[in-house]
Amino acid sequence: MKKKFFKTKDGSPSLIIDELNETYHSRHGALTESLHVYIEKGLNSWIERNKKTEVNIFEMGMGTGLNAYLAYCFCIKNKIKLYYYSVEKFPLSIEEIKALGMEKYLPYPEFHNFFEWLHSSDWNIKNFYKNFFFQKSSSDFFDSIITEKYDIIFYDAFGYNAQPEMWGEKALKICYRILKTGGYWISYCSKGSVRRYLEKIGFEVDRLDGPPGKREILRAIKRV
């Protein structure tokens, strides 16, 4: 599917797939959204609640690598060991990443080399970079054999209109299975049907303030 580049309202770039009318990030700010949803309401909140010095994150949808980069920066600055596993069915090419020019808008210039490494590292094997254990899998979420248990799931699939199967009970049950007790499922999503599925499965669901352009987001905690 053909992708086009565009600049979001905070200046950071993103991509849009015209056939699906689907963007990779919020039009109101790619960087702003990732920082608010996945780092502040996800990673930082989990660390503050659990007082841990290491964290195991699963990301559904690596996309441009923005969430992984920001998680790495957060963990390096806070001296936290990070294990990160991401599944991406439609990987972006190195050429598309370079054309996007995301590095110009990323915080922490001292870590920009990591962003380049993130995309140049091999797929489907475990990689290591300065206290960061990373594996990206070019596979379908439903076909992936996931045996690890995770502290946090960054759920960043395309929206319901583009990928309704990713927001159904089957997908969310997989999330529940691979989370540790006390683990977070965090997403930009606020759809009522998704919240009801999460609650039905057994999650405790919080509706949190969203980033600019989004009234609220969902965070689910596995209590049992």
Summarize this structure as a short list of keywords or feature phrases:
224 residues, alpha/beta, Rossmann fold
Mean pLDDT figure: 96
Head-to-tail CA distance between termini: 40 Å
Helix fraction, binned, reads 25-40%
Q: What is the SS-derived class? A: alpha/beta
| Model regions low in confidence, pLDDT < 50 over at least 5 residues | none
Number of strand segments: 11
* Radius of gyration, CA atoms, in whole angstroms: 16 Å
Compute the number of helices.
Answer: 6
Major β-sheet, in short?
A: 8 strands, mixed
Assigned CATH class: Alpha Beta
State the strand order across the main sheet. Answer: 6-7-5-4-8-9-11-10
CATH superfamily: Vaccinia Virus protein VP39
Global geometry: globular
What does this structure look like?
The protein is of the alpha/beta class and about 220 residues long. The protein has a single domain, classed as Rossmann fold (3-Layer(aba) Sandwich). The chain is built from 6 helices and 11 strands. The chain has helices spanning about 30-50, 65-75, 95-100, 110-120, 170-180, 190-200, and strands at about 5, 15, 20-25, 55-60, 80-85, 125-130, 130-135, 150-155, 180-185, 205-210, 215-220. The strands form 2 sheets. The chain has an 8-stranded mixed β-sheet, sandwiched between helices. The protein has a 3-stranded antiparallel β-sheet with strand order 1-2-3, with no helix packed on it. Helix 1 packs across helix 2 (about 65-75) and helix 5 crosses helix 6 (about 190-200). It is globular, with a radius of gyration of 16 Å. The model has no long low-confidence stretch (mean pLDDT about 95).
